[in-house]
Write a structure and sequence with these properties.
The complex is a heterodimer of chains A (211) and B (240).
Chain A: H1 5-37, H2 42-56, H3 60-74, H4 81-106, H5 110-119, H6 123-153, H7 165-176, H8 179-210
Chain B: E1 2-11, E2 14-24, E3 29-33, H1 40-47, E4 55-60, E5 63-64, H2 72-76, E6 79-82, H3 94-105, H4 110-123, H5 139-151, E7 157-161, H6 169-184, E8 188-192, H7 196-202, E9 205-210, E10 213-218, H8 220-225, H9 230-239
Parallel strand pairs in B: 3-8, 3-9, 6-7, 7-8
Antiparallel strand pairs in B: 1-2, 1-4, 4-5, 9-10
Classes of the chains: A mainly alpha (211), B alpha/beta (240).
Bound molecules: adenosine-5'-triphosphate and magnesium ion.
């Protein structure tokens, strides 16, 4: 049992690594498409809506297979499993973050934008200096929640052979047949990081309430 | 200083400003009065293009601000605006609220911006609140801070949209004092207000708006003591 731990911890490391890289990318996607979704430009709004609806309207497992197997079947584009995994988690989390950004920005009183513009700031400057700092603060709990969801989603990357936590567990019990014990440890490892994040999220929410 | 020609503004089918013509001279204080919904705010917001006019022209010091070729961000720096709801930035201290724009838009150094900021805070009687966040100010203090923030950009015109309407009665006086001081210093001001006493005392000219038109305008004594138009008389008899 103990000799399984190094492999599982490596798997956990991979899970966390993919989640962090993907969420960093997803943040950029979420911000950009979130700004699209509140823009006056119909085309930009349309692009954002289509993106969000497609991602939210299809299972993430299908998205994984699509990127890793579907696209290479008809084009010359090939991704390593690791890259494909990051792409899928990024665009998937990105779509949900679009909604979080949109709601966050819309929750800021529109007088703030007017006050900024009136001083002479451009739209972009007002967003950056006045709106986003306030919006991001309100978005933090929702962002941590998305973090949790994405961590769980990475377990599906086992289907394309990425040695993240779930896959690592599978590879161990397929050799030693102690599926129950191994999967229990896998579950506990997920639970620990997710529970820690839940506590962070609750703490943030409480702090938001106070201010 | 400001010249408004045939200004029109509609929101969809609703025609709010129908044909506004007005001029404001340098150092003049103009108060705009009129019933609720008559278009006073819309009129003021067109002057700095927070609302895009549907027709007509607005010249600020000879430059047409409705012309998309002119840089509206630059032009707005000349036009300070004070809102009924203050709209201070809650994530910045009072002093940061004031220095944010001069630092970034006028390239003032931190020290220089803060020095100007502190002077302005003294002027509006809030020097000891510099490091405080807006949430900890009373309504009247917020509005005086908002005035200081607008002044920090050294505007040549100040626009006020009912600056005292959201305040408890005992807070109104302090804000009006600050505005009177500004008027004495020769600031050009356009003030939408329900404070008739203040308008009478401070305004060089009073504009009465109703139904999307300027119905009547003149010196405060003329408008308040001897209104010519029936609608002006009806409005004043309600509010005085
Ligand atoms: N953004 C908007 N979209 C649609 N209608 C609007 C908008 N802004 C103002 N209006 C309408 O335009 C009319 C004039 O509004 P405005 O705020 O200019 O009046 P006002 O004279 O300032 O009134 P008050 O004294 O109540 O502030 C109102 O009927 C209002 O509902
Ligand atoms: Mg109004």
């Amino acid at each position: 049992m103990l000799d399984a731990m190094p492999v599982l911890l490596k798997g956990l490391q991979m899970t966390v690594l993919i989640t962090i890289i993907s969420l960093a990318i997803a943040l950029v996607i979420g911000l950009v498409f979130g700004l699209f979704s509140i823009s006056k430009n119909k085309l930009l709004r349309g692009i954002s809506t289509v993106y969000v609806n497609i991602i939210r309207g299809t299972p993430i497992l299908v998205q994984i297979l699509y990127i890793y197997i579907g696209i290479p079947a008809v084009t010359d584009i090939r991704f390593s499993a690791f890259t494909a995994g990051i792409i899928v988690i990024s665009i998937n989390a990105g779509a949900y973050l679009v909604e979080i950004f949109r709601a966050g920005i819309n929750s800021i009183d529109k007088g703030q934008m007017e006050a900024g513009r009136t001083l002479g700031f451009s739209y972009g400057e007002t967003m950056r200096i006045i709106i986003l700092p306030q919006a991001v603060k309100r978005m933090l709990p929702a962002f941590v929640n998305q973090f949790i969801v994405s961590i769980k989603d990475t377990s599906l990357l086992s289907v394309i052979g990425i040695a993240e936590l779930t896959m690592s567990g599978q590879s161990i019990y397929s050799a030693n047949f102690r599926a129950f014990e191994i999967l229990t440890v896998v579950g506990i490892l997920y639970f620990i990081i997710i529970y820690a994040l839940t506590l962070v999220s609750r703490w943030l929410e409480r702090r938001m309430d106070v201010s | 200083m400001i010249k408004i020609e045939n200004l029109k503004k509609s929101f969809g089918k609703l025609e709010v400003l129908k044909d506004i013509n007005a001029e404001v001279e340098r150092q003049e204080v103009v108060c705009v009065i009129g019933p609720s919904g008559s278009g006073k705010s819309t009129f003021l917001r067109c002057i700095n293009r927070l609302e895009d006019p549907t027709g007509g022209s607005i010249y600020i010091e000879e430059t047409d601000i409705t012309d998309p070729k002119n840089n509206i961000n630059k032009m707005r720096q000349k036009l300070g605006m004070v809102f009924q709801q203050f709209n201070l930035f809650p994530h910045m201290t009072v002093l940061e609220n004031i220095t944010a724009a001069p630092k970034r838009l006028k390239k003032k150094s931190q020290e220089e911006a803060e020095e100007i900021g502190m002077q302005l805070l003294k002027k509006v009687g809030l020097a000891e609140k510099a490091k405080v966040y807006p949430d900890n100010l009373s309504g009247g203090q917020k509005q005086r801070a908002a005035i200081a923030r607008a002044l920090a950009m050294e505007p040549s015109i100040m626009l006020f949209d009912e600056p005292t309407s959201a305040l408890d009665p005992e807070m109104v006086g302090g804000v009006l004092e600050v505005m009177k001081d500004l008027a004495k210093e020769g600031m050009t001001m356009v003030i939408v207000t329900h404070e008739m006493g203040f308008a009478r005392e401070v305004a060089d000219r009073v504009i009465f708006m109703d139904g999307g038109y300027i119905v009547e305008e003149g010196k405060p004594e003329e408008i308040f003591d001897n209104p010519q138009h029936e609608r002006t008389q009806a409005f004043l008899s309600q509010v005085l």
